[in-house]
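We modelled each protein-ligand pair independently. The example shown here corresponds to the zinc ion entry; the chain sequence is given first, followed by the ligand as SMILES.
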Amino acid sequence: MCSVPIEKDEGCAQMLCKRCKHVFCWYCLASLDDDFLLRHYDKGPCKNKLGHSRASVIWHRTQVTFPGIRDAVDIPKLKVNPCPRD
Ligand SMILES: [Zn+2]
Ligand SMILES: [Zn+2]
């Protein structure tokens, strides 16, 4: 189990573990590794919880997939969740 603590960026529910590259939902911890378009937030308990507009989804995915880009932006950290990957 990975369980690395992960800081949540303001306004976004899509999380990335920097150690195992696992992408998951902040709220229900569901895997988003194969959900490139984030359809997870189109329905179900996490509907509309992504926290930013649909138009920015692809850009955001680029940010979380390439931490170098992400780290270049100073984003306030709010809280920490452990990576749920087994
Ligand atoms: Zn992990
Ligand atoms: Zn969810």
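DSSP finds two helices and four strands in the chain.
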